[in-house]
Specification:
alpha/beta, Cobalt-precorrin-4 Transmethylase, domain 1, 2 domains, 5-stranded parallel sheet, 4-stranded parallel sheet, 15 helices, about 15% strand, globular, disordered N terminus
Length: about 350
């Protein structure tokens, strides 16, 4: 399998590098320290993270783009996304006035670096494999214009289905090319493509990969991952596929429900009914809300993620005491500023 990445882009504001140097299954871990201590060396199986890294070393997996078509892609992207009006606005402190009307431009207008990189990789893949059938497992990004451009390049968007995988992968044949979108793909999808005779171009945003690395740390430390995200969102679907024990909370209200259960242990049936689609298989809140780690869907507001983290930290400190807090709650910075900056900008 092969996955790809890399390219230098010219987007709206001018020339910018879209690529910079960027730094199977494991035994199920419980939040119980006893189970952690009882784990034998035979049970220390390779983590999903390490399996993913193994996939990426395959000759069928590309993450570094295709230099021979890069200049053509730069020209294409400049034509699609560069604007003289935007350049004028940026040159005039993001505001111009004409005929008595003032026009303001958000100072964070445009694609973030991770999105620029994903678009470049996808475009390069199409040009590099002109005679191959190219598929993509989902929308590249949540931008109709970009996805329409890929449709016009004859990229096949794999449709959803009622199958176990949720998608109709029967259309992917040997010698085809598969693009993984900026949101990433699930571990199971990567594993399937690794076993097929296909080329894989991986455009996953490095910030998303950072979240996957974080939940891998949770797993190794015997923590339940609390994911601030929407359980049905493609990025979160990919993230939880790298987890062992997890629960997804989409906002502060749901996080408060988790905190209330940690404090009281009451209403288990109602709790599980509410979160039935947002938890790992076999989830037991009585044992799996004891040792926690926080991660987030990168498209969620960082202010809310941080507020949820502070609430969880205080809750665990009150329940287990300040001395043992690090044994029961860990938080790694997986927050991407781009969503908040571009929404509030």
């Amino acid at each position: 399998m092969k996955f790809a990445s890399a390219a230098i882009l010219l987007i709206a504001a001018g020339t910018a590098s879209a690529f910079a140097p960027n730094p199977s299954l494991s035994t199920r871990f419980s939040s119980s320290p006893l189970r952690m201590s009882e784990k034998t060396s035979e049970e220390k199986k390779i983590s999903k993270k390490n399996e993913r890294l193994r996939f990426m070393k395959s000759d069928q997996f590309f993450r570094n783009g295709f230099k021979e078509v890069r200049k053509d892609v730069e020209a294409t992207m400049e034509g699609q996304f560069k604007s003289e009006l935007v350049d004028t606005l940026k040159a005039n402190e993001y505001v111009i006035e004409r005929d008595g009307v003032k026009v303001h431009l958000a100072d964070s207008f445009g694609f973030c670096w991770g999105v620029e990189r994903s678009i470049a990789l996808a475009y390069e893949a199409v040009k590099h494999f002109p005679d191959r059938k190219v598929h993509i497992t989902n929308e590249l990004i949540h931008n109709p214009e970009v996805n329409d451009n890929l449709h016009n390049m004859n990229v096949n968007f794999i449709e959803k289905s009622n199958s176990a995988s949720g998608k109709d992968f029967s259309v992917v044949n040997d010698n085809d090319v598969v693009i993984l979108p900026a949101f990433g793909a699930s571990f199971e999808e990567m594993q399937m493509f690794n076993d097929k005779d296909v080329e894989v171009v991986d455009t996953t945003c490095p910030w998303v990969s950072k979240v996957w690395n974080t939940v891998d740390k949770h797993q190794k430390k015997g923590l339940t991952s609390i994911i601030h995200g929407k359980y049905e969102h493609e990025e979160t679907v990919a993230t939880v596929s790298f987890c062992e024990d997890y629960i997804c909370v989409k906002n502060m209200d749901e996080a408060k429900m988790v905190v209330e259960y940690i404090k009281t242990g009451e209403g288990k049936e109602a709790f599980m009914e509410y979160f039935k689609n947002a938890v790992s298989e076999g989830f037991d809140p009585d044992t799996m809300l004891v040792n926690l780690g926080l991660a987030n869907q990168t498209t969620m507001y960082k202010t809310e993620t941080r507020a949820i983290g502070q609430m969880l930290q205080v809750t665990m400190m009150e329940k287990y005491g300040p001395v043992d807090i690090k044994s029961h709650y860990l938080e790694f910075d997986t927050i991407c500023d781009a969503t908040q900056v571009r929404t509030l900008g």
